[in-house]
Design a protein that fits this description.
heterodimer; A: 254 residues; Lipocalin; five-stranded antiparallel sheet; elongated; B: 451 residues; five-stranded mixed sheet
């Protein structure tokens, strides 16, 4: 068994040495990339932590976090900073109820190749140690893609919440960056306008999201009938809606 | 399944005539199954046989990879052209590259996904606790359509399992699965917490028919010869005409009006050679004539639930029990017991026949590989959480430490303790074997690839 174990031990040492060299040569930039797994030693309730880190565009870093048992898979990291001392990032997006002060982690690469440091959350601290287990698998936020001509344009519909009618006007367009976006105006007792930050169109189905208000419209998209037949959702509330528009008024692109 | 002392005495359990029928010798000869299933649905095929010619590894070598999700995995993995597709209680449906363990796509739903997906013609069909049946593109995960039922809920009853206060209605903490859809003849069949069995057009999601049962339907339907067979928490097993939804026959399992512990079909049937094999929470495994609904034989498990779905192969039925923690093998024609081995802890996962081995996931965080001929344990994989055994969930020899975990019959305490049992990485999920690798989800939130 020694014969099998030896190369593995050598490999581990080489990886640690390689990691340190790359850390030193590039400010830690190369050695920090990857999937890191370990545990935050929260008293009485240790929490598994999986962090994915990869170099992004323009010298920035992309990252996401998995917290098993908390229904957190691939929540984006924020303010990822890598320097000679280590790495720090925020992960407020992992939580549906805001936590103050916002949760962060600060970790340093140790000589054994592990990342060690602290998780800071709600004014509390817990030790964290993470081990690199492979290549980064960063979950990137779902983004809008270009929408079809039949979907772009202005739509109208009505739904009821709590016995009151709400009139909806929805405008959708392809932006110069080719990602679709738009606005939803809801007129009830008062008028609310929301930015649509996600448009997800698949053949026959469309989902629109205004994340700031946790507001969503989704349904079957019938281009021929010029309808979106589905539901409005906001938090736990859901109401049916049919959006219409005059046929033949969709955006045209040459 | 409950804390000790909560299981009712046998006289509390009233069974209908079907449940008391003595074993019948009649039946068709059980032939060896070809088992060439695509493994793209729960239990491998529409008849839910749970038998595969894909051999499991003869011994445990290593964990090939793990894929962490955000919550426990109850759903079972299925195969789709090199991808492993499954749901997680974190609300997502995943497709993972079988070779590398890297995510191909992820689709979020608005509820846990303890349903096992079915793949058909480039689509993934799966149910969510948000009360919808989803149809996704199998390559990209894009939403094709979704169908709204009247909403999901767990089975619930007053004083359930003997929990107190007796007049309190408790949701069943052991109602962990959602019905796994079945695709046959261009239709998708599944059960719902709203008490209905649904048939939808697979292309459009349009409702073809729905059939009302008396309670939650979280068991998964099986299909053979134009008939859909599915059990309900109302204690009945229904055979429905796949085309019309009309009832062909109803088999009545046991009832337990006192504490509702010994009733309901959580197990999904396997249909082989004209016989329906199904477990029941009334403490029986039943073999039922698929044409008439008459019992051919039954095996009394002494009050232990048969939650997992039986596997049927080579004229044998493989099944396992909860409280008695037994892996058992019976003659499919006569019901005669051929093997009985301890699994140490409750089994909710369904035994999977894989070559010369039978794989059994156990709630103590162990995946057991047993010799198909003898029942002997060939190898066992345990999760890290099972080995750590935080909070002494398990005894030193791997049984649940029930006396420690369940100090009283208080409903709130019992439900919290039942959840703690899963801290050891319980295997509710049923293993998939493909290309010499075993894939299985765990309550520790990992999907494991083992070879």
């Amino acid at each position: 068994m020694h014969a099998l174990a030896m190369p593995s031990a050598r490999g581990t040492r080489a990886a640690v040495l390689g990691g340190l060299l790359s850390w030193s040569a590039a400010g830690g930039a190369v050695g920090i990339a990857g999937r890191w797994e370990g545990r935050a030693e929260i008293p009485g309730d240790p929490q598994r932590v999986i962090v994915d880190l990869a170099p992004g565009a323009g010298g920035a870093w992309d990252g996401s976090i998995v917290l098993p048992g908390r229904s957190v898979k691939g929540a984006p990291l924020s303010a990822v900073r890598v320097d000679d001392r280590g790495i720090s990032f925020g992960f407020a997006a992992a939580f549906t109820i805001p936590i103050e002060p916002a949760p962060t982690m600060a970790l340093a690469l140790r000589p054994d190749g592990n990342l060690a440091g602290s998780l800071h959350l709600a004014g509390l601290d817990a030790p964290v140690e993470l081990r690199r287990t492979g290549e980064a698998q960063v979950d990137r936020p779902h983004r809008s893609a270009r929408i079809s001509d039949g979907l772009a344009g202005t739509w109208h519909g009505r739904y009821e919440f709590g016995g009151y009618a709400r009139d909806v006007t929805l405008t959708l367009a392809n932006r110069p960056d080719a990602a679709a976006g738009g606005q939803i105006t809801v007129v009830g007792k008062r008028t609310t306008t929301l930015d649509v930050d996600l448009v997800d169109e698949s053949p026959g189905y469309v989902t629109l999201r205004a994340s700031a208000a946790d507001y969503r419209i989704e349904g079957r998209f019938d281009a021929a009938a010029c309808t979106v037949d589905g539901a409005v959702k906001q938090g736990p509330f859901e109401a049916p809606i049919v959006l219409h528009r005059a046929c033949g008024t969709g955006e045209k692109h040459s | 399944m409950t804390a000790p002392k909560l299981v009712p005495s046998r006289r509390d359990v009233r069974r209908c005539a079907h449940g008391r029928l003595a074993p019948l010798a009649a039946g068709l000869a059980m032939l060896a199954l070809p088992a060439l299933a695509a493994q793209d649905t729960f239990r491998g095929d529409a008849a839910r046989t749970g038998a595969s010619t894909e051999p499991a590894p003869a011994e445990f070598h290593r964990i090939k990879w793990t894929f962490p999700t955000g919550d426990r995995i109850v759903s079972s993995p299925v195969w789709d052209d090199g991808r492993i597709v499954f749901g997680s209680d974190d609300g997502n449906v995943y497709a993972v590259d079988a070779a590398t363990g890297r995510q191909v796509w992820m689709r979020h739903t608005d509820g846990p996904v303890p349903s096992t997906p079915a793949i058909d013609h480039g689509r993934v069909f799966v149910g969510s606790y948000d009360g919808h049946l989803y149809a996704l593109d199998a390559v990209t995960g894009a939403l094709r359509w979704k169908f709204a039922t009247d909403g999901e809920r767990r089975f619930e009853a007053k004083g359930l399992h003997g929990m107190t206060p007796r007049q309190q209605t408790f949701a069943d903490m052991y109602d962990v699965f959602l019905s796994s859809p079945l695709v046959a003849g261009g239709r998708v069949y599944f059960g719902s917490g709203d008490g209905h069995v649904y048939a939808l057009d697979a292309d459009s999601g349009a409702l073809k028919w729905k059939f009302a049962t008396g309670d939650v339907v979280h068991a998964s339907p099986a299909y053979a010869d134009g008939v859909v067979v599915v059990g309900s928490w109302d204690g009945n097993l229904y055979a429905l005409d796949a085309a019309t939804g009309q009832s062909r026959w109803v088999f009545h399992g046991g009832t337990d009006p006192l504490i509702h512990n010994q009733q309901g079909f959580q197990s999904s049937p396997a249909i082989v050679d004209g016989t329906v094999f199904v477990g029941c929470r009334d403490g029986h495994l039943y073999a039922i004539d698929a044409a008439t609904g008459q019992a051919r034989w039954s095996i009394d498990t002494a009050g232990s639930w048969v939650v997992g779905s039986p596997a049927v192969s080579d004229g044998r039925v493989y099944f396992a029990t909860s409280d008695s923690a037994l892996y058992q093998v019976a003659d499919a024609r006569t019901g005669a017991l051929l093997q009985k081995e301890s699994t140490q802890a409750y089994v909710f996962s369904s035994p999977e026949v894989a070559g010369e081995l039978v794989l059994v996931g156990v709630l103590n965080g162990a995946l057991q590989a047993r010799d198909r001929r003898t029942g002997a344990l060939r190898w066992q994989f345990r999760t890290d959480a099972a080995r750590e055994n935080r909070g002494w969930v398990l005894t030193a020899d791997g049984h649940f430490n029930s006396g420690w975990l369940f100090p009283s019959s208080s409903g709130e305490g019992t439900q919290a303790s039942a959840r703690r049992q899963q801290d050891v990485g319980s295997f509710f999920s049923t293993p998939l074997v493909r290309g010499g690798t075993v894939y299985i989800g765990s309550a520790d939130s990992n999907l494991y690839a083992i070879e």
